[in-house]
Design goal:
Layout lengths: L2 H32 L4 H30 L3
Helix pairs in contact: 1-2
Length: 71
């Protein structure tokens, strides 16, 4: 992989993780609001937030691995 592509990928991975964090926080806020509409909407939105967090774990693994390959 060229250095330009590696640098760009690092930037993208960081950006995606930050963006996912914003969504996850927003999902959690709306999950609380959704409680008034029942357990299922709340639980489903909360599950989406948790899946977003899981996706970020994979993005972090990719970023960490990419950084190790730079050495």
């Amino acid at each position: 992989m060229s250095d330009i592509n590696r640098d760009r990928l690092e930037i993208l991975l960081k950006h995606w993780a930050e963006h996912n964090n914003e969504h996850s926080e927003e999902f959690r806020r709306w999950a609380e609001i959704a409680k008034s509409y029942g357990k299922t909407p709340h639980d489903a939105i909360l599950a989406a937030a948790q899946q977003m967090d899981k996706a970020n774990e994979f993005l972090k693994q990719a970023l960490d691995s990419l950084k190790k390959g730079k050495a």
